[in-house]
Design goal:
Elements: H1 6-34, H2 39-49, H3 61-75
C-alpha cells in the first residue's frame, strides 16, 4: 500500500522524465536544423532516434513529444488499452 500522496510523487517523477525527454528532442531537432537539415528531415531523424518508426509518415516535433508523452503514460500504468472505452 502506498503512502498518502504517493500518486503525486509518481506523477511528478513521470512529468520530470517527460520534460527531460521533450527538452532532449527539442535540442536534437534544433541541432539538426543548424547542421543544415530541412525541418521535415530533422523531425523524422529525431523521431527515429527516439525509437519511433519512420516510414512514409512525416513527423513534427510536437507529434514526437506527444507520442513520447503517451508512451510514458502507458509505461507508468497511467494509460492503458481500456482507456477511452467508457461512455459518459
Amino acid at each position: 500500500m502506498g503512502a498518502s500522496g504517493s500518486d503525486i510523487v509518481t506523477s511528478t517523477t513521470a512529468l520530470k522524465a517527460e520534460t527531460q525527454r521533450s527538452l532532449a528532442t527539442r535540442s536534437t531537432y534544433r541541432h539538426l536544423l543548424l547542421k543544415g537539415m530541412a525541418p521535415e528531415e530533422a523531425a523524422n531523424l529525431t523521431a527515429f532516434m527516439a525509437g519511433i518508426p519512420v516510414g512514409e509518415s512525416h513527423w513534427t516535433l510536437k507529434q514526437i513529444n506527444q507520442l513520447l508523452f503517451l508512451r510514458q503514460m502507458q509505461q507508468t500504468g497511467r494509460f492503458g488499452g481500456a482507456d477511452g472505452n467508457r461512455t459518459h
